[in-house]
C-alpha cells in the first residue's frame, strides 16, 4: 500500500491567511490542510478527507495527475473522518469529476447535507456509509462526538471516526486519526498492529489558542500532544506521525524544544508530500 501525505496542517494551513503570529511569520516550510491519499496498486487512489487545498495537492502529486485518457483520473473515491470544513470543502473543488464516491458515517453525511445539495447539482455523487477500497481492508472506529460549528443538528455521534486500512497482500496497516478529543476506548487495540499511525497533532499544549485570542480550545476537540505522547511511548510498536498540525503548534518549528520532545518520543512531524510504503 502506498500512502502519500498530501497536506499535514489543521484548518487554515500554515501560514494562515489572517494570522501574523510568530509561527505564521517564521518562514517555516508551508503546510497545506490535512489530506491523505492511499493506494493498493499505485493505479487507483482513495483520498482520506478532502481538503480545500485539494486541487494543488493533486496537481503537485504525480501519481494523482489525470490521464492517460483526456478525462481519466486515478482518484477513485473519498473517505471522510468527519464533516469539518477543512476535511470536506475540497469536495466542491472536485465537482468537475461529478459522481466521485464519498464514504462517511451517516451522521457526517447528514451534517454535510448543505454541501451535498450543492454538489448533487454537478453530477450525482455516490454518498455511502460503507467503506470499500478495492485491494485494501478498511475498518472504522468512532472516536468523538465533536460536531462542526456549522451543524445545528442534535443527532448523536459519532461525528468523528478513525480508519484502519490494511493491505492483505503485504500485511501493512495504516491508522488515520487526525481528530481525537480524547484517547478513545478501543484505540489501543485499533493501533496495536499498525505500521504507521497518523495522529491528531493539532495542538502541542492545552492552552495554545490563548496566544492568538481564542476560541475555546477545549471545545475544538483535539487531544494535545503533551497528553498523547505518554500514550505513544507506551506503544513503541507502530511508527507514530502527527498530522493536522495547527499553525499555533510550536512543534512546527524544527528548532523548538517541543519539536525535540516529539522526536525524542520516537514520533515525527512529517511534511507535506511525505510518502510511505506499507
Ligand atoms: C477542527 O479541526 O477543529 C476544525 O477543522 C476547526 C475549523 O477549522 O473549524
Ligand atoms: Mn480540522
Ligand atoms: Zn499563526
Describe the protein's architecture and organization:
The structure is a single chain. This protein has 278 residues and is α/β, with parallel strands linked by helices. Helix content is 18%, strand content 21%. The strands form two sheets. A seven-stranded mixed beta sheet has the order 6-5-4-3-2-1-12. The longest helix is centred in the C-terminal third of the chain and has 9 residues, at 225-233. The N and C termini lie close together (5 Å). Bound molecules: D-malate, manganese (II) ion and zinc ion.
Distinct ligands: D-malate, manganese (II) ion, zinc ion
Specify Rg, calculated over alpha carbons.
18 Å
Strand arrangement within the widest β-sheet reads 6-5-4-3-2-1-12
Low-pLDDT sequence parts? none
Q: Could you describe the largest sheet, including whether it forms a barrel?
A: 7 strands, mixed
Order of helices and strands: EEEHEHHEHHEEEEHEHEHE
Q: Class by helix and strand content?
A: alpha/beta
Oligomer: single chain
Mean pLDDT: 96
Continuous helix count: 8
Per DSSP E runs of 2 or more residues, the count of β-strands stands at: 12
Head-to-tail CA distance between termini: 5 Å
Silhouette: globular
Using brief descriptors, characterize the structure shown.
binds manganese (II) ion; 21% strand; binds zinc ion; 8 helices; 12 strands; binds D-malate; 18% helix; single chain; seven-stranded mixed beta sheet; alpha/beta; globular; 278 residues; five-stranded mixed beta sheet
Annotate the secondary structure layout.
Blueprint: E1 2-7, E2 35-39, E3 45-48, H1 54-59, E4 75-79, H2 85-88, H3 90-93, E5 102-103, H4 106-111, H5 113-120, E6 127-128, E7 137-144, E8 160-166, E9 173-177, H6 187-191, E10 196-200, H7 225-233, E11 239-243, H8 257-264, E12 275-277
Amino acid at each position: 500500500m502506498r500512502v502519500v501525505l498530501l497536506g499535514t496542517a489543521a484548518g487554515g494551513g500554515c501560514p494562515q491567511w489572517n494570522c501574523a503570529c510568530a509561527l505564521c511569520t517564521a518562514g517555516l516550510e508551508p503546510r497545506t490542510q490535512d489530506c491523505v491519499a492511499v493506494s493498493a496498486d499505485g493505479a487507483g487512489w482513495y483520498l482520506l478527507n478532502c481538503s480545500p487545498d485539494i486541487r494543488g495537492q493533486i496537481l503537485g502529486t504525480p501519481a494523482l495527475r489525470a490521464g492517460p485518457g483526456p478525462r481519466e483520473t486515478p482518484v477513485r473515491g473519498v473517505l471522510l473522518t468527519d464533516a469539518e470544513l477543512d476535511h470536506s470543502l475540497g469536495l466542491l473543488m472536485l465537482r468537475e469529476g461529478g459522481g466521485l464516491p464519498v464514504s462517511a458515517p451517516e451522521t457526517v453525511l447528514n451534517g454535510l447535507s448543505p454541501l451535498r445539495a450543492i454538489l448533487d447539482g454537478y453530477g450525482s455523487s455516490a454518498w455511502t456509509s460503507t467503506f470499500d477500497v478495492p485491494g485494501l481492508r478498511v475498518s472504522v472506529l468512532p472516536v468523538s462526538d465533536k460536531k462542526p460549528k456549522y451543524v445545528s443538528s442534535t443527532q448523536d455521534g459519532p461525528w468523528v471516526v478513525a480508519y484502519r486500512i490494511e493491505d492483505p497482500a503485504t500485511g501493512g496497516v495504516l491508522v488515520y486519526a487526525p481528530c481525537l478529543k480524547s484517547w478513545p476506548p478501543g484505540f489501543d487495540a485499533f493501533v496495536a498492529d499498525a505500521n504507521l499511525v497518523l495522529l491528531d497533532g493539532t495542538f502541542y499544549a492545552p492552552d495554545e489558542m490563548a496566544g492568538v485570542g481564542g476560541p475555546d480550545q477545549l471545545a475544538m476537540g483535539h487531544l494535545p500532544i503533551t497528553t498523547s505522547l505518554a500514550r505513544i511511548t507506551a506503544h513503541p510498536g507502530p511508527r507514530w506521525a502527527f498530522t493536522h498540525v495547527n499553525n499555533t503548534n510550536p512543534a512546527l518549528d524544527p528548532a523548538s524544544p517541543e519539536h525535540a520532545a516529539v522526536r525524542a518520543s520516537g514520533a515525527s512531524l512529517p511534511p507535506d508530500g511525505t510518502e510511505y510504503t506499507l
